[in-house]
Amino acid sequence: MPKLDLSHIEQTNRTGYPAPFDEPVQGRWYRRLAPPTGLQDFAASHVVLKPAAWSSQRHWHDGEDEMLIMIAGEAVLIEDEGRTIMRAGDIAVWPKGVKNGHHLINETQEDCVFVAIGGGKKHDIGGGYSDIDMLFTPDGYFRKNGTGYDTDRIP
Amino acid sequence: MPKLDLSHIEQTNRTGYPAPFDEPVQGRWYRRLAPPTGLQDFAASHVVLKPAAWSSQRHWHDGEDEMLIMIAGEAVLIEDEGRTIMRAGDIAVWPKGVKNGHHLINETQEDCVFVAIGGGKKHDIGGGYSDIDMLFTPDGYFRKNGTGYDTDRIP
Q1: Whether B81 and A1 lie within 8 Å, measured CB to CB
Q2: End-to-end alpha-carbon separation of chain B, Å?
Q3: Full residue range of the structural domain in which residue A33 is found
Q4: Alpha helices in chain B, H assignment, sequence order
Q5: Do the interacting molecules here have an ipTM over 0.90?
C-alpha cells in the first residue's frame, strides 16, 4: 500500500561516526524509506530524536540537496547564524554546497519526529563538519589532515 | 535562512487541467519550494487542501517517484485498492511506473496540509489518469486517442 506502515520498516540508531562523535546521535532512531519502497529519485529517512539527541554532527553536503519536514514535537536547528526553533509543519532546506553546517538538537523532554529528504547516493560527493576535526567523502570519514578514521561511513 | 518562511513564498491554485477536470482542484493552494530555495535534486510542494478539494485528478507518473508527508489535518487517499485515511505524520510513497492512480480528497470541514516530493522535471516522461479520458506527457495533456487538450500543462 502507498501509505507506509512504519512499524514494518526497520528502525535503527546505528552510526558510522567514530568515537566520541557518535555519542550525541545515540538517541537518533531512524528508518530509511527508499530501500523498502522502491524510491530511486531521492532518499528519505523518518527520524525520531529522543530527548537530548542530535540529528547529526553539524555538517553540510557538497553535492546533495537536503530538506527537513518536522511532523511532531520540537527541536532547535543550529547553524552558523544561530538557533531556530522547528515545530510540526516547519520546513528547512539546505541546497548543496552551502558550507553552513547545520543540525537539530532535541532540547525538550519529549520525542520529536521529522522526515529528511536528500538527493541520495548518486549526488554524494562528500561534505564537511563545522565543529569537529572531520570531513566525509564517499569513501568514509577523514581528519582535515587527510588521515582516515577507522569506522565505516553509512551514507 | 534554511527554515522556510512560507509567507514569503508565492501560493497559487493555478492548474493546467482542461475544463471540467480543473474544477475539483480549485481549492488546492500550493507553493513550489524548489525554485525559491535553490533545490535541484528533487522537487517539492507545500499544499493546502481546502474542504472538498482534490490534490489532483487520480493519476500516476511513469518516470517520477513521489512521496507525500501529511503535516496537518486529514485527507482520504484514493487509489485502485480503495480508501485510506491520512493524518499528520502519515507518509505515502508512489514509485514511478506503478499504474495505480492516486489522489487525496479533503472530506473534512478544516484545511489539511501536506508536502509532496517528486523527482522533478528531469524525470518527467508523463503518466496517466485513472478516471478520465486524459494522459500527460512533457508536451501537455492529451485524450487517449492522441488528440491534445487546449491548455498548457504546469509540470
Answers
A1: yes
A2: 27
A3: 18-142
A4: 34-37
A5: yes
